[in-house]
Amino acid sequence: MRTCHLLAVWFFLAPGAFAERAALAVVEKIAGAVGFYTADGRRLVGVPVGKVPHEIIRSPDGRYLYVSDNGILWMTEPGEGGNTISIIELESRSKIGVIDLGNFRRPHGMDIDPRSGRMVVTIENPHGLLLVDPVQRRVLKKYDVQGRSPHMVLFGPGGERAYVSNTGSATVAAVHLATGRVKLIPTDGRPQGGVRSPDGRFIYVTNSDGNSISIIDAGLQERAGVIRTGKGPGRIALTPDGKTLVYNLQAGEAVGFADVASRKETLVLPLGGRPLSLTMSADGRTAYAGVQDQDRIFVISVPERRIVRVIETPKGAGPDPALPLF
């Protein structure tokens, strides 16, 4: 009887034993936190991270979140910025440490190669790309991206190259990680977010000043085409079947949809606010757009092309990306 009692007490006290399931981890940029929210939009807890965090990714094993502590609200603003990546353990919903980047500051975009576990991180001070070991929490190498204002980054197929959007110089840098060789791929104005096709053959990169999406052939490291869009695309996702691109339109205060096969924009869905982010659930059925200056996250049904919910974050939170957790 006593054994059963002790087991019951242990289970009650075990971290996360009865914790309500969180559906979203939201970077609350202005508040300097990551908020955990249920599917219906209730905020469960906020975890403080570094000053003015920007982007968030999940470890391949699903146990950790990594948050870039940029330190500056807008990339066009001057300032030294932060030099850490915060590490959040999902089970306990707590910050368990940082990756110290030393003299490399203003980290922004991140990606992890699931095969090697290596992380790539863009930095804005000085401009460049870092190769990071997130387990050992150390910088392995710094690369010259041969451009200004590196913003977002994606691993290419096989993890051999990283593709960096040089927002200030209208190029994507294809960086060969073993040698450091760089091939610059011209884009339209202010390239930003990107997404890989399911087969890894193509990378789609938004151009916020070009009102377009560049189609990059990852094998040739060349631009293979373009999709014209509404105003100010910035972040982008692709449905699992590879058929539909979904992206925020910051200047257009909307979310856009484009057909991959025809390379045409098919719909612009007005939001009534400027979305800075666009993320998608793993099944491709739900998209999330964070409107920082309204403290809102718009939840969008991708099949139905409509807003199904608006999540209100705390006043002054300034939500940017909302990372779906399942």
Features:
mainly beta; 4-stranded antiparallel beta sheet; disordered N terminus; 1 helix
The overall pLDDT average reads 94
Helix content: under 10%
Poorly predicted tracts of residues? 1-18
Radius of gyration: 19 Å
Structural shape: globular
The helix-strand sequence is: HEEEEEEEEEEEEEEEEEEEEEEEEEEEE
Largest sheet: 4 strands, antiparallel
Number of helices: 1
**Total number of strands:** 28
| Computed structural class | mainly beta
Q: Strand arrangement, largest sheet?
A: 3-2-1-28
Strand content: over 45%
Give the termini separation: 38 Å
Short description:
The protein is mainly beta. The chain has one helix and 28 strands.
Describe this structure in words.
The chain has 1 helix and 28 strands. With 326 residues, it is mainly beta. The strands form 7 sheets. Strands 3-2-1-28 form a 4-stranded antiparallel sheet, with no helix packed on it. A 4-stranded antiparallel sheet has the order 4-5-6-7, with no helix packed on it. Strand 25 (286-291) and strand 26 (296-301) form a beta hairpin. The radius of gyration is 19 Å and the shape is globular. Residues 1-18 have low confidence and may be disordered.
What's the arrangement of secondary structure elements?
Elements: H1 2-13, E1 24-28, E2 33-37, E3 43-48, E4 53-58, E5 64-69, E6 84-89, E7 94-100, E8 105-112, E9 119-125, E10 127-133, E11 138-143, E12 150-155, E13 161-166, E14 171-176, E15 182-186, E16 191-196, E17 202-207, E18 212-217, E19 222-228, E20 233-238, E21 244-249, E22 254-259, E23 264-270, E24 279-280, E25 286-291, E26 296-301, E27 306-312, E28 319-324
Antiparallel strand pairs: 1-2, 1-28, 2-3, 4-5, 5-6, 6-7, 8-9, 9-10, 10-11, 12-13, 13-14, 14-15, 16-17, 17-18, 18-19, 20-21, 21-22, 22-23, 24-25, 25-26, 26-27
